[in-house]
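[User] I wish I could look at a protein chain and see how it folds. I have put the entry right below:
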Amino acid sequence: MASSSSSQNPYANVPQGEDEGTKGKYFVNQYEVSRCYGGPEEGGWWFDRGEFIHCLAGPFTREEDALKWWTRWKQEQEQAKRSTPYKMGHGPHDGVDPDGYGDDNYLLLGGAWGHSSLRTCVQPHEGKNYPETRPFYC
């Protein structure tokens, strides 16, 4: 088994930095990831927001051990798919005009829309929400 989590972990976009207190340790973290409205620029853009749920396992001293645990857990979970609630921005007022009709010109920044997904990954730190600050269009 390769030691690179990015080659085996499809969720490599979640935070990967090591914390000084957990250096040399690996954790299996779970996130609820939502698509959030970033703004109207260039026809509208969206970003992923990950809310840390909990650490499933760890710390492991070797990344290979964490990856083995994650692989076994993932295989067991494929049969027990869990759905997430449908999100509509910041609430019923998000994305509607003053008369109550749906209008994308009234979407609030940072609101999550649709079903989120559960992502589990091996990281060299305990889980944390991401991004730390809301991204901005440049």
